[in-house]
Amino acid sequence: MIESMPAGDGIVAALALVRLSADGYNMMMACGGPITVNPAFQSGRLPYDPEKDFQPVILIAQFNSVIVAGASVPVTSLREFIALAKAKPGTINFATAGTPTTSNLYTEWFRKTQGTDFYNVPYKSNIQALQAIVAGEVHATVFVAGAAMAQARAGKEKKLALISERRNPGYPEVPTVKDEGVDLVIRNWYGLFSKTGTPRDIVVRWNTLVRRRPGVQHRRRAQDHLGQLHRPRA
Prior knowledge:
- There is one protein chain.
- The chain is 32% helix and 21% strand.
- It contains eight helices and eight strands.
- It has helices at 11-18, 32-41, 50-53, 78-87, 102-113, 126-135, 145-153, 200-211, and strands at 27-31, 54-63, 65-70, 93-96, 119-122, 140-144, 157-162, 188-195.
- β4, α5 (102-113) and β5 (119-122) form a beta-alpha-beta unit.
- The two termini are 35 Å apart.
- The relative contact order is 0.22.
- Residues 217-234 have low confidence and may be disordered.
């Protein structure tokens, strides 16, 4: 049974796992938000400790995101979008998945380094932020590249720049942020976690089974990822 819990910057899902039994039947698929971002920005206020409460099982994938703008926004590139924000300070809004999240951090980074004044519009999840772009409620957001491309090809949004060091062969026409003069690349990841205390043999079994599934990256070295996912340090 899969239960989606995207709200609360991943806190809802993390707390749910903490409250469940460490018997190997309860797992959490998480990205960097609840594991590394939340502890850095909400130190002492989280209802869980990712380093003490969770056991990394396997790294599933790493992925890049893309900066997209609404179809009606009068820009065709990231450079033009930054110029628009500078020309109209405080009027250009940026949808995020709440505070703090990767998309919100990217917005704040733009404020401080690019001389822009984006207005943060927090939603409960990245999916809702993308839906807001399609509906014309906001000007821009950051979303997983593959999923955002479908909306862009349908003309419901504009792809401005891929947050990556190099262009993606699947959509080579999309420039990278570095192509657009922005030197900040953030790569997110998804990993599988069990509750701390889950028997080691069960964790290894999960690791082995996931490695056998088609499409899982790093198959040959997946076993080496046990305990190697980045964790926050005091």
